[in-house]
Q: What sequence folds into this?
């Protein structure tokens, strides 16, 4: 039997190392595709969801965060559970939860039920993300060769982000918003069926136990922090419930650190942070995704509220951002161990920063052509961050801790992703609502109309203003609404640019020289595997 093909024996299970590795890579890519498909599918559909369910800006933030929060809070636990009880089992459970969450969201009659569906899908993604990377790390233990496989994994991630808006746009052209979730159900079921045949189960060497004190304190920290920021932005940061939430987050964060330091089997071994490369990539993941995911949240609202685009038209614009990393994922993966991450990652972040700054010049009448080059530049910067960041984090620690490093990097990335819509959504709402009365007055509306519209914005968020009917004054009100939103959007873009610039500075300060290039042995090119000593030593980054 030739290598590189999956055998077609009675069980259709790969029976050679090369075939098992190929099957593992395919299923890992399918898993991360299913995990990330809801991210941009839902993001581009937020205006339609807001109109259909009469959701406020705060409730709309929770539609995104209901997915990201459980992903961020439980991703480390899922990684440990896979190492202790079998990665294939956790992979299958992740697919099942993703499909169940999509089914609940598909049938959701209210925004609260939609949150439940999103949360279940987030749990599924929490199981899939660390497991898919751990499966690759187990199948390809040589850190010099692993980069190109992680590049393909990142390409699958980018493919999900790229296809999500287009699929949502096609659905919303012909059906209600809820049908955007239909794709995930058969995709999850088919992936489960193939994984049962193709995947070989694996687990970490030695016994691992769930770290309940660490898990509970981590979940409390993340949930309380995001809740406090969302509610503070929707109301006031001096409200009692907001202050209590932020205090709980601070105390829980201290508790998490103490629990991990005392644990004999920590969920996240804090000694990993002795590696400057791991520390750098973790901070970069959290800071950059806070800015970028928050930016996508506000950009989708810009397309709906300001430019009044259909979901499909908005999808084509978002596709530009995600298509570039999709096209460049594999080539960048091959560069990871040939070009210093100190050049790749901060360089990509600087390009991203520049792209965000150019976007501050957009307005209600910005054309597709004028917007497209800015979005393509943003995608180019992201392409040189996602793959090198993940590969460097995994290769910067001992081989036996690669799964934990992957889960840790993804956890901090999702914490940033959860905070993004919360932080930038709060900034957008506060700035836009504050600027609205002035723009309404400048548009020539009377004091009574200004008071009426401002009251709607303060109670229901800036998005609720679009439903107000002022008769002949409605066009002027909508123009003032657009100007107010653009004030908030420009502030968000400046904050996102500052965050990516900060991430670039962190990378330049902590990342070191080039990684060692792939070696060849008597086994032929690309077949090098580390010796036992090499496998337990950190890769040079």
A:
């Amino acid at each position: 039997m030739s290598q590189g093909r999956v055998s077609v024996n009675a069980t259709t299970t790969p029976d050679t190392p090369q075939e098992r590795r190929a099957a593992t890579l395919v299923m890992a890519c399918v898993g991360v595709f299913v995990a990330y498909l809801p991210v941009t599918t839902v993001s581009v559909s937020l205006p339609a969801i807001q109109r259909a369910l009469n959701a406020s800006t705060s409730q709309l933030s929770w539609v995104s965060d209901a997915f990201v929060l459980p992903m961020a809070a439980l991703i480390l636990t899922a990684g440990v559970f896979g190492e202790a009880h079998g990665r294939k089992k956790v992979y299958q459970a992740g697919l099942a939860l993703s499909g169940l969450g999509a089914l609940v969201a598909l049938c959701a009659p209210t925004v609260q039920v939609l949150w439940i569906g999103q949360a279940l899908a987030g749990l599924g993604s929490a199981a899939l993300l660390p497991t898919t990377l751990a499966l690759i790390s187990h199948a390809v233990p040589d850190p010099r060769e692993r980069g190109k496989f992680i590049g393909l994994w990142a390409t699958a991630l980018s493919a999900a982000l790229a296809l999500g808006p287009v699929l949502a746009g096609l659905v919303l052209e012909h059906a209600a918003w809820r049908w955007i979730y239909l794709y995930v159900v058969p995709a999850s079921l088919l992936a489960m069926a193939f994984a049962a045949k193709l995947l070989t189960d694996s687990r970490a060497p030695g016994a691992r136990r769930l770290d309940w004190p660490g898990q509970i304190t981590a979940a409390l920290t993340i949930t309380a922090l995001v809740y406090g920021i969302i509610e503070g932005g929707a109301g006031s940061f001096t409200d009692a419930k907001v202050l209590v939430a932020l205090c709980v987050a601070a105390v829980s964060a201290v508790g998490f650190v103490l629990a991990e330091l005392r644990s004999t089997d920590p969920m996240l071994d804090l000694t990993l942070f002795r590696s400057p490369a791991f520390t750098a990539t973790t901070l970069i993941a959290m800071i950059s995704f806070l800015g970028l995911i928050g930016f996508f949240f506000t950009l989708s609202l810009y397309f709906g509220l300001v430019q009044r685009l259909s979901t499909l038209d908005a999808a084509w614009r978002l596709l530009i951002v995600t298509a570039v990393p999709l096209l460049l994922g594999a080539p960048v993966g091959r560069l990871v161990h040939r070009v210093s991450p100190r050049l790749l990652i901060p360089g990509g972040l600087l390009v991203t920063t520049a792209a965000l700054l150019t976007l501050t010049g957009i307005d209600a009448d910005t054309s597709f052509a004028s917007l497209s080059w800015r979005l393509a530049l943003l995608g180019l910067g992201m392409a040189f961050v996602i793959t090198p960041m993940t590969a460097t984090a995994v290769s910067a620690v001992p081989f036996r801790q690669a799964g934990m490093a992957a889960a840790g990097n993804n956890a901090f990335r999702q914490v940033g992703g959860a905070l993004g819509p919360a932080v930038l959504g709060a900034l957008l709402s506060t700035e836009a609502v504050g600027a609205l009365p002035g723009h309404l007055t400048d548009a020539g509306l009377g004091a009574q109309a200004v008071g009426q519209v401002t009251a709607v914005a303060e109670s229901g968020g800036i998005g609720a203003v679009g439903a107000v009917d002022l008769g002949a004054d409605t066009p002027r009100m909508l123009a003032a609404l657009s100007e107010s939103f653009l004030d908030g959007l420009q502030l968000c873009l400046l904050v996102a640019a500052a965050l990516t610039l900060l991430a670039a500075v962190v990378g330049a300060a902590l990342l070191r020289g080039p990684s060692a290039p792939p070696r060849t042995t008597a086994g032929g090119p690309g077949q090098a595997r580390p010796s036992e000593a090499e496998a337990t030593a950190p890769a040079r980054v």
Summary: The two ends are 38 Å apart (CA to CA). The chain has a mean pLDDT of 80.
